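Input record (Table S2, row 210):
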Amino acid sequence: MTLQIGDSAPDFTANTTSGSIRFHDWLGASWGVLFSHPKDFTPVCTTELGYTEKLRPKFEQRGVKVIGLSVDAVGDHERWADDIEATQGARPRFPIIADADRTVANLYGMLHPKADTTMTVRSVFIIDPNKKIRAMIVYPASTGRNFDEILRVIDSLQLTDKHKVATPVNWQPGDDVIIVPSVSNEDARKLFPQGWNEQRPYLRTVKQPA
Ligand code: BEZ
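Output record (benzoic acid complex):
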């Protein structure tokens, strides 16, 4: 089964560096980011995990729990965490799933056999408090992901859930946003009384709502 945006995030029970978890219970009422790593003791993953730990306060400010996955055992993850701390200056304090039998990797389609038959690709699933998949990012093993971009996507999702806006190309928090086309000008006058910049009837930009 290929997971798509809007699908329920499959639930699972797994061993992690923080003990056994049932995924949906662990998420609780939070947003979640589930991301896979091809293998322990690999260089790109080492940098990604150290950087994610440094970003953890920013995820927490947004009500987001992060959880990694790699297809090795908990003992390997723990020894690898020593290396991550020594080389990246941050030891992952978020759970890392030990998916040696690839149960979770298969459930989430993280194995792409034409890329590699045993290691996962670099998948990211952004999951909302209703346990719905809201965004997915997939990179090959050789390309480290941009975790600042993951935060940016979460900022966009959380903003556009609250207001009838969408975020334009390369948007950063605080930049102007776009009034969604389904909002008529009559309704827009009520929602955005300060007015908007209309470049085309379908391209109306407005200051980011607070
Ligand atoms: C890495 O994480 O460094 C890596 C893993 C698999 C293939 C290439 C790089």
